[in-house]
Amino acid sequence: MREFRYHRPVDVADAVAVLSAEPQAAYLGGGTNLVDLMKLGVQRPDVLVDVTGLPLDTVEELPDGGLRIGATVRNSDLAAHPVVRRDYPVLARALLAAASGQLRNMATTGGNLLQRTRCVYFQDTGKACNKRAPGSGCAALHGQNRDLAVLDWSEQCVATHPSDLAVALTALDTVVEVHETDGTRDIPITALYRSPGAHPERETTLARGALITAVRLPPLPAARRSTYLKVRDRASFAFAVGSVAAVLDLDGDVVRDVRLAYGAVAHRPWRAHRAEAELRGRTFSPELAGRAADAELAEARPLRHNGFKVPLTRAITVRALSELAEGAP
Ligand code: SF4
């Protein structure tokens, strides 16, 4: 690993000022992804700005019934928070499905959202990768692409976003609070991430130096009936090959409201608006859930090794919604 400087900012403005002024600076949260990438030579920051000492580690209940989660709240603490467990079980389940206990004890909310793809070519500095080295090509497009995207990919990049937490937050219409050099702004989480397009190295809409300070969950009583299903190669510790975050609100058998988001299918957490539109106002059945997933996945373009992701994502959509309709969790 190269030498780097280490900076503990006195406040958020100091952190943003340092990051904005230093082209090769990076924020350090739990370090569970960044330190690995530094060891591999994929990221080579000159200075690390450690944000874990900033007062961003609280979970607050908001007057409107929502929840504000500080950016440095650890994944384990968030998963165990009583309000999260009661009002947003999809979030607790997504967190507990991710990584290992040790990693969840370190990983932060903000860092989790900004973790990098686990595409093996991205992590191998000897391989062509437009995300790591713009213009070098994409070794995954015609290489090993079993774990990669089926929706919204480009010829320049077929990577997926690895976060489970981000998928749950996408289903919950979360707002991301950001501090930039010229002030603060709120970004709907669906507007935080970019499609790969011609510039897969640009993964988010954040300005240089921007710091995520919190995420805000809106009040959503329907989310008390919500779940997260994840399919992975090992039950103990693995990234998703498919996942779904689901909220279902029924009036009798009729779908009054539904929120769905998919993981492991695209460059960003994938909000399934088409599937939701198919479901709303209709009498729920597993067959309807299957048709809704078909509508969402109609534009899927599987790569050579990942055609299985389309029926897999359909199957977990049906299972998650059926379990919720039957009263679980
Ligand atoms: Fe790089 Fe994206 Fe291609 Fe993977 S899929 S090699 S991250 S450009």
UniProtKB/TrEMBL annotation:
Residues 1-222 form the FAD-binding PCMH-type domain. InterPro entries: CO_DH_flav_C, CO_DH_flav_C_dom_sf, Diverse_Substr_Oxidored, FAD-bd_PCMH, FAD-bd_PCMH-like_sf, FAD-bd_PCMH_sub1, FAD-bd_PCMH_sub2, Mopterin_DH_FAD-bd. Keywords: Oxidoreductase. GO terms for molecular function: FAD binding; xanthine dehydrogenase activity. Its EC number is 1.17.1.4. SMART domains: CO_deh_flav_C. This is Xanthine dehydrogenase YagS FAD-binding subunit.
